[in-house]
Amino acid sequence: MTSDFELSLDELRTVARYATEAARDVLPVFEDAHPGDARPRAAIDAAREFIDGAPRTKLQRTTSMDAHRAAKDAATEPARLTAQAAGDAASAAYLHPIAKAHQVAHILRAAANAARIAEIAAGEDPGAGDRALEGARERATPALIDILRRYPPAPTGRSRTAQLMTALDSALREEESGPLTGHDLRAGFEALGVPVGATVVVHASLSAFGRVDGGVATVLGALRDRLGPQGTVVVPAFTGDAVRDPHPGAGADADRSGVPLFHDRLPTLMGALPTAVLADPQRLRSTHPQASVAALGPLARDITARQPLAYAVGPGSPFDRLHELGAHILLLGVGHNRNSFLHYAESLIPNHRRKLRRFPYIVEGERVWVEVPDVGDDNGRHFPGVGAEAEDAGLVRVGAIGAAECRLMESRPFIAFAARRLQERLSQEGRGITGCAPLSS
């Protein structure tokens, strides 16, 4: 094939080492799910042989293809991502020296997959992905970054893994352009169309921006500057990772004494931006043990004042009030799989999925265990597709701020569209509109 530049065997080993380290760290995820399938481990072993100085041979190609077949056979998303990362590690020996953006995946996808696995393991916590990307960034040697920069930037994709890879790619190239400043961010919010004086509910991945001068404080400050004194910032401050039943279905004798009661200062694992909002002494927070929101601005008290225990993201919740107020939804470096307003949209339709929330609560001075219904989890099944359809319908503005792909939408038309499409999609799955589906725990 025609080469656009040179790649020495030592450089190929640099790439293979980087991918193999990421794949090796998550290999137990696949082997726990498929203990009899040795294909991903064989690919990693073949990559190690090449890294240690053996010539590249058919072994790397064959084991890579076998690992990718294992990914197709995997029963879960984490297992699939693990096997794919192992296949990428072995195939790195044959990285093509052609200046095509898709080649970046052979360098960075294994690390992005590992970050996505960390998010899933942490209950879909984007902060876990951010931390994993930071580790991947620290592992990247100057030699690896030099190789990466010979290729065009990674293509932007809609999947969460693609977004993580784009964020990592940008972070590793960042020294060419320098860190984002507050001025850059304010200009980006303006270009995206964030209205002055608006109420905005925000989901964000700090790492998606690349390096930011001043970190999350700069991002929050720039957003508040753009909104002005009449604007209100709202973030999810969910704590379902901590305030949850460790023994669902185990009966009344299960030991749940170690589960903490919710309190106003309980930390959230929803990422750097919600943590920064919670640290502000002027913020207010709703009181749901698992699905609280925090807010800063003149409408903070109105939004956080009430939240039912049942259907915490549905009618009567802060999301309902945000919808009434015509709030905007702002996704910063994350996709619609992180858009909590889609849970609210689903709660409005008669054939919505359901789940049980279980948590400790104080009733008349006594600690009791509460079990209430809520709209079910999506786990990436419909939300990304509905979000993409809304974008195709012109209901979402998409733009880039630094390396982060960002989305802005008005909640009212977006929710009307999303509720209709979710009802249609769930009906196609056989969830009847008039029937009552069983609760899933």
What do you see in this structure?
It contains 16 helices and nine strands. The protein is of the alpha+beta class. It has a seven-stranded mixed beta sheet with strand order 3-4-2-1-5-9-8, sandwiched between helices. α1 packs antiparallel against α2 (39-51), α6 (126-139) packs parallel to α8 (160-173) and α9 crosses α10. The longest helix has 25 residues, at 9-33. Mean pLDDT is 92; it is low at 434-441.
Give a short summary of the structure.
With 441 residues, the protein is of the alpha+beta class.
Shape: globular
Helix-strand pattern: HHHHHHHHHEHEHEEHHEHEEHEEH
Number of helices, where a helix is a run of at least 4 consecutive DSSP H or I residues = 16
Which structural category do the helix and sheet elements fall into?
alpha+beta
How many strands, what sense, and barrel or not for the largest sheet? 7 strands, mixed
Low-confidence region ranges: 434-441
Which range does the strand content fall in? 5-15%
Distance between the termini: 54 Å
Oligomeric state, counting identical vs distinct chains: single chain
Strand tally is: 9
Q: Give the overall pLDDT as a whole number.
A: 92
Helix content: 40-55%
Strand order, main sheet: write it out: 3-4-2-1-5-9-8
- Rg over CA atoms: 23 Å
